[in-house]
Amino acid sequence: MAFAIPALAQDTTSVTFTEESGSVPEQRFIDRYENVFMTKIPTRKMFKLGYLATTYNGLGFHAAFEYKVLPALSLEVTFASRTNRLESAITIERFERQLSGRNMFAGVGGRWYFSMDKRIARQQSANNFSGSYLGISYERSLAAIQSDRVRQHFSLAYGFQSRFLANGFLDFSLGIYYVTPYLSLYDVGYAKLPGFTARNAVIATRSLLGLAFGDWKRHDKGPLCDVLHCDYFVKQHFKIRLPEVNIGINDQSFRAEVGYERKLGKSPVSVNLSIGNETDRSSYGGSWLVMAGEAQVRWYYLQKRQIRMGKATDNLSGLYAAPRFIYNYDRRVSWYDVLISPRRSVYRSWGTSIGLLAGYQQRLFNRLYFDAGVSYLGKSITKQLFKVNYGELQAKAGIGFAL
User: Fold this and answer.
1) Is it the case that residue 72 has pLDDT exceeding 90?
2) Distance separating alpha carbons of residues 266 and 218, to the nearest angstrom
């Protein structure tokens, strides 16, 4: 008998692990704000038309042409139409008065974008007009408006300018301004001294918002909702508008506004309450104080449709229409001489305004907001609440912090 013993077969299958070394290509972090502020869009020339707010020369419309001579150096020509010396909104009056030489100012200046060369070298920016700058400028009125003299502004300022979306821009600066013949926006009783006068110098802010047109190429829009706050639910917010400040030896002024807005349930309607303050003090002529309390009932009339289309959420951004109810308090203190003896007079008044407003509000970066509108108001200068003395067309724009 023969026995066959089968051979045990051994599995020769093997699993091997290998590790290959290699370099991971470096990926540049894509700034989500590039498509909003156009930091990577080359621009050599730009025309700007906007809303100007200052305390040293009032409020009004502003037009400018800026041209890049070098990547870090630009030249600028400006024209401005002053609509208001005081108050927080520009008043649109007859064009022949608005464009008269007494309200028109022309200027020239230069800007040094001191970090532009480094940002271009690091591929953080293209050659354009977005960034921090140091600027010098000269501006003068087109007609004699103070004691038969033209008004002139010499300035040295530090500021920041940026494009916004396709055709928007914003420009904020803080600078030293020297004004002749007088720093006051009105004629004053003292004689103009020859040479440099310290009381004509002032530290002041300047805010400019508006539209920009230039030689840039349009590009595809990026994901803007991280910036425009369009995918967030916002039921209420506190708002603090960036103030305008003017600090001088003899003249000081301050303009500010705070507000609170809250939605009414799930409706596209909100209640917006605000308090505005403007003070102007001069050692030559007294002081001026204006307080304005305002209530608006805003209707975001496109919001429901945009929510259905998936373009918006339940928030406080978008086009709106609203009635305006305003209470104004005015207090003026004047000093004058009577037979060499100084006298002090105090004038107080209050008035009401009611009107309709069409505007646009947008939250930005979670903590900022932009709000602009045009309204027509019936104003009362008497203590009769519902008596309208005259009508007024106003425009107002502002940017600030939202909490």
Assistant:
1) yes
2) 37
Cα separations (Å) of 25 from 19, 28, 73, 124, 290? 18, 10, 36, 19, 61
Q: Domain extents for the chain? A: 31-220, 223-403
150, β-bridge pairs: none
Query: 291-313 burial, b if ≥16 CB within 10 A, otherwise e?
Result: ebebebebbbeebeebeeeeebb
Q: Tell the burial category of 5 from Cβ atoms under 10 Å away from its Cβ (0-12, 13-18, 19+).
A: exposed
Q: Provide the whole-model pTM.
A: 0.78
Instruction: Band the pLDDT of 238: cuts 50, 70, 90.
Output: very high
Return the percentage of the chain with pLDDT > 90, whole number: 30
CATH architecture of the region 31-220: Beta Barrel (2.40)
Model pLDDT for residues 285-332, shown as the tens digit of each residue: 677 788 889 999 999 999 899 888 877 788 898 999 999 999 888 887
Burial class (CB in 10 A: 0-12, 13-18, 19+), 142: middle
For the domain made up of 223-403, the CATH class stated in words is mainly beta
Q: Shortest CA distance to 57 belongs to which of 146, 153, 157? A: 153
The angle at the Cα of 342, spanning 341 to 344, to the nearest 5 degrees, equals 140
Cβ(332)–Cβ(347) below 8 Å: yes
Least confident of 28-37, 120-129, 139-148, 339-348: 28-37
Q: Answer yes or no: is pLDDT of 22 > 50.
A: no
Under the banding of pLDDT at 50, 70 and 90, the label for residue 228 is low
Q: What pLDDT is stored for residue 148 in this prediction?
A: 82
**Token pair for residue 205?**
């802010």
